[in-house]
Design goal:
Layout (H helix, E strand, L loop, with lengths): L2 E2 L2 E2 L3 H8 L6 E4 L6 H9 L5 E6 L2 H10 L5 E5 L5 H8 L5 E7 L4 H5 L25 H7 L2 H11 L5 H13 L6 H11 L11 H12 L1 H15 E11 L2 H14 L3 E2 L10 E2 L3 E3 L8 H6 L7 E7 L1
Parallel strand pairs: 3-4, 3-6, 4-5, 6-7
Antiparallel strand pairs: 1-2, 7-11, 8-9, 10-11
Helix pairs in contact: 4-11, 6-8, 7-8, 7-10, 8-9, 11-12
Keywords: Cytoplasm, Methyltransferase, rRNA processing, S-adenosyl-L-methionine, Transferase
EC number: 2.1.1.199
GO molecular function, one term: rRNA (cytosine-N4-)-methyltransferase activity
């Protein structure tokens, strides 16, 4: 297992095995983070191999440029949602042998209080992967309507007390009372009438707001669609998800793209079909008990792998 700067690379050997790395291949790491997966990919590449990583966090990009001085490696400052446009401009279409996506928030982001991702550390309520883009969580809560906030909490956080939380948070945010992670966590703790035994009451709320602020699910759908155009035939897509919403999107995408479809299902005879574009490789892979003991954040991870036909 690879760790760097306090970051543990989840499902590292499994996700790399899923890529079936060729020494002279061209690979993309969609989420550099602190480079655990990138370093492991580079270690398996020969002199002709190439790796391009993406990250929208300027701190991660700066760290990549300072820590990896390898002519086979490049870092793109941007979201993996931009993969299609970047690949088109760079001439990578149907030339990439593997794409790895680790959808988790990196440990440094969670551990640095000033990034505002964690209810365990008091800091400004930010939550942006790219602090230079879009609204902070604080400003988003002030701007969003109560009904929309409730919808976000219900669908992105799967929060059963979504409406009760939304009412309280919307009121206090607009009154200027929700400025830090502690403000939000304490408010949710007061509002939630029934607590889970082993989960902080604000867990789902923080997840939902982070997903909304960063447009995470839309970005995931965009990069999955882009993978079909960017991967070479036989290229692998290896995706690590951390909550059910992400995994559902990945699972459905791989399932749908691996099926041969009738283009005219309303007609009584089969007129034409669209060919399958992916082949699923194995079943969903979960972290071992040993990995979960080493890193508690691995517990919710699931890896799915597919190959472009």
């Amino acid at each position: 297992m690879s760790e760097s700067v306090g970051h543990f690379s989840v499902l590292l050997p499994e996700s790399l095995a899923g890529l079936a790395i060729k020494s002279d291949g061209f690979y993309i790491d969609g989420t550099f983070g602190r480079g655990g997966h990138s370093r492991a990919i580079l270690a398996q590449l020969g002199p002709q191999g190439r790796l391009v990583a993406f990250d929208q966090d300027p701190e991660a990009v700066a760290y990549a440029k300072a820590s990896i001085t390898d002519s086979r490696f490049d870092i793109v400052y941007g979201s993996f949602a931009d993969l299609h446009s970047v690949a088109e401009q760079a001439g990578w279409m149907e030339k990439v042998d593997g794409i790895l996506l680790d959808l988790g928030v990196s440990s440094p982001q969670l551990d640095e209080a000033e990034r505002g991702f964690s209810f365990m550390r008091e800091g400004p309520l930010d939550m942006r992967m790219n602090p230079a883009a879009g609204l902070s969580a604080k400003d988003w809560l002030i701007a969003v309507e109560e009904a929309k906030l409730a919808q976000v909490l219900k669908h992105f956080g799967e929060e059963r007390f979504a409406y009760k939380i939304a009412r309280a948070v919307s009121h206090d945010a607009k009154a200027g009372l929700v400025n830090t992670t502690k403000d939000l966590a304490d408010l949710v703790s007061r509002v939630v009438p029934k607590k889970d035994k082993h989960k902080h009451p604000a867990t789902r709320t923080f997840q939902a707001i982070r997903i909304a602020v960063n447009g995470e699910l839309d970005a995931l759908k965009q990069v999955l669609d882009a993978s079909l155009a960017v991967l070479a035939p036989g290229g692998r897509l290896s995706v690590i998800s951390f909550h059910s919403l992400e995994d559902r999107i990945v699972k459905q995408f791989m399932r749908d793209q691996s099926q041969v479809k009738d283009l005219f299902p309303d007609l009584p005879i089969l007129v034409a079909t669209s060919e399958a574009r992916l082949k699923r490789i194995g079943k969903a892979i979960f972290p071992s008990e040993e990995e979960c003991l080493q890193n508690v954040r691995s517990r919710s991870a699931v890896l799915r792998i597919a190959e472009k036909v």
